[in-house]
Design a protein that fits this description.
0% strand
């Protein structure tokens, strides 16, 4: 009977020829870490755009009001006088 596994590489050959996955893991981790500042920058840009859009709406529509979270995001203080109007 013939050996069906005759043409398969041995463990020694496989280990010698294969690369360690640690390099791939390290590149993935570095890629994710490099994305964090970029994502933070894009979120800051998006928030600035939203604040400008809300300010434009506040000037355009007299009944426009900021929700608490919008005021916090844009750094706007809501006073009692603003609430009475």
């Amino acid at each position: 009977m013939k050996n069906p596994y005759k043409d398969f590489p041995s463990n020694k050959q496989t280990k010698k020829n294969s690369q360690h996955p640690y390099l791939i893991y390290a590149l993935i981790v570095l890629g994710v870490v490099a994305l964090i500042p970029f994502l933070s920058w894009t979120m800051d840009k998006q928030e600035a755009y939203e604040c400008a859009n809300w300010a434009e709406q506040a000037n355009k529509y007299p009944a426009f009001f900021y929700a608490d979270w919008q005021a916090m995001q844009c750094g706007i203080e809501i006073t009692e006088a603003d609430l009475r109007q």
